[in-house]
Structure formats: C-alpha cells, structure tokens
Amino acid sequence: MNKVFIIAEAGVNHNGSIELAKKLIDVASLAGADAVKFQSFKAENLVCKNAQKAEYQKETTGSKETQFEMIKKLELDYSKHKELVRYCNEKNIMFLSSPFDLDSIDLLNKLGIEIFKIPSGEIENMLYLEKIGKLNKKVILSTGMCNLSDIELALNVLRNNGTNDITVLHCNTEYPTPMQDVNLNAMNTIKEAFKIKVGYSDHTEGIEVPIAAVALGAEVIEKHFTLDKQMKGPDHRASLNPQELKDMIDSIRNIEIALGDGVKKPSSSEIKNRDVVRRSVVARRSINKGEVFTEENITVKRPGYGISPRMWNYIIGKTAIKDFQKDELIEI
User: What separation in angstroms does the CA of 71 have from each of 15, 20, 74, 78?
Assistant: First the structure.
C-alpha cells in the first residue's frame, strides 16, 4: 500500500502566538508527521459578531465571550503564515492550513501551498468550493455533519471547476467524538460510492480509532495535537499531547508494514519454523522390511522434514523397503 499521509492538526492550538506555533511544528516534525496544519481566517469574514460558540467551545473556553471574540484572538496574518511556512521548510515538514474564507484561499495560494484542506463547515459554500476548484490543486475534503448527497454536491462543484485530485475524509465534528458516533465503516461507504481516495479526520480521545482507520484503508489521517491539554483554548482538551502524537504515528507506520502486499505465502521469517511444527510420516512401532504400511504401524509426528502427511493415502498399502525403528522417518 502507499504510505499513509499523516496530518498533525495544530489548528488554533497556537493560541495566536507565533512562538507556540513553532513549538507545535517542532513536535509534529519530531513525531514523524508528513504535514502540520493550521487554520487561516479573518474573523470578520467568518462569523457574525453575535454568533454563539459550539457547546464544546463553551465548555473549554467559557460562555461569556462570543465566537467572534474567541477566534479573533487566534488569527494569523500573512507575515505569520509566511514565517511558519519558512520554519516548516527548515524542519522538513509540509505546511498546510485550512482556509475559512475567500481571502484566506488567496493568502494560501500566494504562499504556494500544495494541498488545500477544506473543513467540514465549508462543504455547502459554493463560492468557496468554486474558488478552490479553479486552482486545480490537490484537495482534501472533510465531511463532518454530511450525508452522501452533501459530499456529491461538493465533489461536483470541485470537479466542474477543474479539480480532480481529491481525497475525502470521513469525519465527526463533535469534540471529542463519542465512540458510538465514529461510524468508521462510513469511510469505505464513501470510497465505494464515489470511487475516490478516502481517509479519516479524527476527534475521538486516544489514538486507537485513527490506527483502525488505517487498517481499513485510510490513505490520509488527520488528528489534532497540542503542547498541553490544559492550555486555554477551544481545542486543547480534544487533542493529543506530543507523546500521544508520536505513539499514534509510530503505530500507523507499524500497521502499514503489517498490512503487507496481500499475497498469502510463507514469510521469510517463518520458513525456519516449518520443519519444527509440521509433521512427517513415521513408524508407530518397529516395522520389518517387506511389511505393508497400515494405520496400525505408521503415524504422523514432528519434525516435518520427512514425507508429508499429505502423502498418507499414497503410503498406505506400500511395502517397507527396509527395517524401521519406532519414530523413524518412513522412506519409500
């Protein structure tokens, strides 16, 4: 299989600080992620001044401030984006960011990013999808809160505007996602419905679900991470700490190796065990030369470097060519 593309989702866990953002890049690079992803937006273009927070955001940041006030503090301007791209290049990790408005699409395109990651909330945003579609870049599309018709609509808009290299991520947008709501099999429902590359964007606690997604065929994995789950901000609690991120990535790489090529054959490591654990046809008791082999005088026992038990019916009725002692390998 192709190597799974792992996105370490920093999101807004930098809390508006360029220094924290760089530390997140360090963590993602050391953990072995392929890309570290942030979020690009102008609060004025994204949310109305009086819009309320999601319930999970109220739990993590309080209910006094509005959603606008919360995300205004988390903006990254063009100069900060440029600095983070430069730092990612230094750390040999791909910089990605999800644009949340039309201006941010232009900003990221100006920076020359290779992949546009479309967040779940923009899947009905026709102007947004058309603008990204016309860039003819690689696209990763998250599908939280979606049914198949929603996905079909977004794919049609992207394709009709010139974009065809699309990977669709199954996703649930509750932070954290309850296990009973993960519905991981829906990932392959998407794959079968649209004959498209699929992956999984995870918001569960822990690392087992994205690992399972890889075993089911995910080509892209996205997972939130933070420097410290106790930091102030909307997404820290539902994110992995640095060690958990590394554990997840290491486990995914092991699963990639373990999945193999799908050809059922003895592996190089187990060939040496074959003669030890398989059986051969041996004398059940002493057998004289000229005696006929029957079920009463032969049996099968380890080791397996003699005549295979698969030859049993062929041997029965043959005549011993010499004397055999008990447990001696039969020859014919």
Answer: 9, 16, 5, 16
Which residue type sits at 291? E
Phi and psi, residue 247, nearest 5°:
-60, -40
Q: Which residues touch 12 (CB under 8 Å, ≥6 apart)? A: 38, 39, 71, 74, 233, 234, 235
Tokens 């974009």, located at residue: 163
Amino acid at 72: K
CATH number of the domain bearing residue 324: 3.90.1210.10
**142 and 183 share a domain?**
yes
For residue 62, what pLDDT is reported? 65
Per-residue pLDDT reduced to its tens digit, 122-131: 999 999 999 9
pLDDT of residue 50: 81
Q: Is the pLDDT of residue 256 over 90?
A: yes
Q: Where are the alpha helices (DSSP H) in the chain?
A: 18-31, 43-46, 55-61, 67-72, 78-90, 102-110, 126-133, 148-160, 186-194, 208-215, 242-259, 274-277, 312-315
Q: Which residues contact 79 (CB under 8 A, 6 or more apart)?
A: none
CATH code (residue 148): 3.20.20.70
| Residue 108: closest CA among 93, 120, 98 | 98
78-90 vs 18-31: helix crossing angle, rounded to 10: 30
Whether residue 115 is predicted with pLDDT greater than 90 in this model: the reply is yes
Q: What is the dihedral of CA 236, 242, 246, 248, to 10 degrees?
A: -20
Is residue 121 over pLDDT 80? yes
User: How many structural domains does the chain have?
Assistant: 2
Do 109 and 152 fall within a single domain? yes
Does 293 lie in the same domain as 240? no
Domain interval for residue 177: 5-259
Tens digit of pLDDT for each residue in 76-109?
999 999 999 999 999 999 999 999 999 999 999 9
Q: How far apart are the first and last CA of the chain?
A: 46
What tens digit of pLDDT does each residue of 173-208 get? 998 999 999 999 999 999 999 999 999 999 999 999
